[in-house]
Amino acid sequence: VQLQESGGGLVQAGGSLRLSCVASGRIFQINNMGWFRQVPGRQRELVATMSSDGITNYADSVQGRFTISRDNAKNTVYLQMNSLKPEDTAVYYCNGDVIPFGHGYTSYNYWGQGTQVTVSS
After folding, report:
1. Residue 73 contacts residue 23 (beta carbons within 8 Å)
2. Which terminus of the chain, N or C, has fewer Cβ atoms within 10 Å?
3. Which residue(s) pair with 76 in the sheet?
């Protein structure tokens, strides 16, 4: 199982970006999927998560500006980021709790490689 992010880049403050993450491999089911971010020298922090039945959770710092969504048929999670601020600059990582085929109902946690988001002031 692999998670692959796309959509990062450089944007001015107030602008928008949309991140995508596709899970591939022999996947039976995906439970929670979400986004985390990390700045050098700091701990990785939660941005937003969504369960397989659509329950969402957002960090206070992005509430009202970011929107997480999923396409379960495509094993894809999105993060629409609006009203971006310089403090949103970070490497954004996709995360998923995945049940691979042949593993019963045991889920494993996977991370993508990360995509850089830079917001200029």
Report:
1. no
2. C
3. 22, 71
Kindly state the average pLDDT of the residues 65-85.
97
For the chain, the residue count is 121
pLDDT of residue 100: 95
Task: Say how far apart CA 59 and CA 48 lie, in whole Å.
Answer: 6
Query: Band of the pLDDT at 51, cuts 50, 70, 90?
Result: very high
Q: What is the DSSP string of the chain?
A: -EEEEE--EEEETT--EEEEEEEESSEEEEEEEEEEEE-TTS--EEEEEE-TT--EEE-TTTTTTEEEEEEGGGTEEEEEE-S--GGG-EEEEEEEEEEETTSTT--EEEE---EEEEEE-
Here the tokens at position 64 are 């009202």
pLDDT digits (tens, 9 = 90+) for 24-41: 999 999 999 999 999 999
